[in-house]
Design a protein that fits this description.
32% strand; 251 residues; alpha+beta; Alpha-Beta Plaits; 3 domains; six-stranded antiparallel sheet; five-stranded antiparallel sheet; Structural Genomics Hypothetical 15.5 Kd Protein In mrcA-pckA Intergenic Region, Chain A; globular; Ribosomal Protein S8, Chain: A, domain 1
Length: 251
């Protein structure tokens, strides 16, 4: 763990201690996958309060952590607002990418930690942000590249809260993370090893550095730069004792 990661871990420990001592719930800003991994790998004995994470919808990649002094506090709402960004004149709108939307937000001088996931759809996008930033974005986010846009507060769309998946099936020799990642990405196990070394593979938000990690059904596998998958289930065992499994790929 390098110096920056040690400081991140210390911040989590301090927040948990403050939550316990003051008897209140405390929220972080939106955390990156690396920050979430540091949190998830912090021993419970080092944290004075329990915690949970949420990013505005079930499968969010960027999430806030809430430290709670007591189980009764788990029902507190997270300070997250959803914004819909739509082209003001769809007929003349450019095709905008995730990078375009993120760049426009950062150009306004907003720290990345105040922004959660950005979900891009045709001619529109949804941004999850800290609730204190919502009005600012509604007032200031009026153009992306050469496209005039309207930014409004909305509810989480059903297609985001219940995303579509593509089904992938195949056989693996074991439930090792490298075997499942290789099947998901249609690559050989040996070619997957570099992705582990580069810390590009996460399971349930935790960085996985070894391909020998054993995955469980319903685990979420994220391969940075390649996509996200759910290891759904073992369908059956073949005559050659290989595992026939089902993987769901986020569309």
């Amino acid at each position: 763990m390098d110096k920056d990661e040690i400081l991140i871990k210390k911040r989590f420990i301090d927040l948990s201690k403050m939550s316990y001592q003051k008897g209140i719930s405390l929220f972080t800003d939106f955390l990156s996958m690396n920050e979430l991994s540091i949190l998830h790998n912090t021993k419970s004995s080092e944290l004075s309060a329990a915690y949970c994470t949420f990013g505005g919808y079930e499968f969010a990649e960027r999430q806030m952590a809430m430290f709670v002094p007591d189980a009764l506090f788990y029902d507190m709402p997270y300070p997250i607002t959803v914004l819909q960004i739509m082209a003001k004149y769809p007929k003349f709108a450019q095709e905008l990418s995730h990078r375009d939307y993120l760049g426009a937000v950062i150009h306004l001088g907003v720290d990345r930690c105040k922004i959660g996931d950005i979900v891009v759809r045709e001619k529109e996008a949804y941004i999850f942000c800290h609730e204190k930033m919502a009005q600012f974005f509604c007032d200031e986010l009026t153009q992306i590249k050469h496209t005039a846009v309207d930014t409004v507060v909305c509810d989480v769309p059903k297609e985001i809260s219940k995303p579509d998946f593509a089904e992938l099936t195949g056989t693996v020799s074991s439930l090792r993370a490298d075997s499942i990642a290789a099947l998901a990405l249609h690559r050989s196990r040996s070619s997957i090893q570099d992705l582990f070394k580069m810390q590009k593979i996460f399971v349930n938000g935790k960085i996985i550095e070894s391909g020998s990690y054993i995955m469980k059904e319903e685990d979420i596998l994220t391969v940075r730069g390649f996509g996200r998958f759910i290891f759904k289930e073992v369908i059956n065992i073949t005559k050659k004792d290989r595992l026939h499994i089902l993987i769901l790929q986020f569309k």
